Amino acid sequence: MPKTASLHPSGTGAGQQRLASLGELLRDWLPHQRWFAGKHMPVTDLRLLSMTELYPGCLHLLVHTGHTGTRADPTGVLSGNPGPAAPAGGVPAPGGTPPAGDCYQLLIGIQQHLSPRLGRALIGRADVGPLAGMAVYDAFQDPRSAHLLLERLRHPGALGPLRFEADPDKPVPAALAPRLLDAEQSNSSLVYGDEFILKVFRRIQPGVNPDLEVPVALAAQGCARVPAPVAWFRTTQPQEATLGVLQPFLPDASDGWTLALHALATGDDYTAQAHELGRATADVHLALAAAFPSGGRGETGRTAAAMIERLDAAALSVPALRPYVPGLRNAFSALTACDPGPPAQRIHGDLHLGQMLWAGRDWFVIDFEGEPSRPLAERRSAHSPVRDIAGMLRSFDYAARQRHPWRPQWARRCREAYCAGYAARAGWDPRAKHGLLRAYETDRAVYEVLYEARHRPDWLPVPMAAIERLAVRGD
Fold it and tell me: Which of 181, 215, 248 is the last residue of a domain?
């Protein structure tokens, strides 16, 4: 298995010489980052896509990584292959076959002497090249870099291939103290003065990221359920791609997963909150349908075939799933004969309790990036809104399973209340689309089984209980 990594520069001169110092350090550092997809594969190819100096001693990089057993991207274009990263209240949505390699956004700091407060940010000391002996670190953890990044957003303009843009009607104050959120996530988030949050996408795909596109469109529809972006930045090389989005921060908000676990721990009822969560979901779906008209029904035959294909693949990997395959196949096959339900439309794509924030009097919906392991074109395409609903129903089940003994009646009441709240706002009841809802919930549970078996085997009983219910009783 090759041990050396190459870093192929896109330029010459001083930039190329710097890269000679960084290549081996990045190869060793990247697989240990929480947002890095290929943790199970060594980085055997590292190619530079762009390098921009934000200020002396701080480099913005886009790099393409290749792994043993994958084909390195010969064209050097942006690609995406993020692996699973389980969010609070759920697991990633089903994804397709990952492409070879990934593109990552890095902010690299270079100093002779690193202050103690940046010790955790250290990547290493360069051994070769013009940076030999210099400390190399993750500059997203440096308050100075975070401050200067905000200043770039406050004063829109171009810097090499980078474009900093802002809503002129929503000014951002200066001198907001930055802090990096320390949470398990597939991106990096900087909070400024408890007023704004900058979500920096670590894994980059070409095109407009839905986490920018969707909130902007929903704001134009007057939907108050989603914080509207105030600034963002992107790159024009090697292709157009979104790099980060600045939005209002809700400092006193609590996510639905945390509140659900608290209710379970204290014995409090959660049905009122679940009902309001359903209304909030419907509000967002209605606004999405208006903002992104699709004008078509979902293709149930193609959807059923894809679900069956995912089931068969998962059963090959997880033996515990095999006895339930016939019953689960029935759930998918029934799609072709059941009511196709509401028209396909833009949806959230990865909805669960952790994506809902309670801020005083209202529920807000966040993180419209969707499941990053899916191609961007797929995440931006139309799907049945039942897919989002099924994700939330599975999230209630996951929450209920955190308590011992398990309280199935808690999850059942929440599911009913959520669907009732959705129906009150949307004008149609998910419970009346039983076959459709069962199929989407089954598809979600099948993927959960595969995910838990690979990454969190102690959690496997949670989706397996749902598999038994869906395969045997069909409810």
Answer: 248
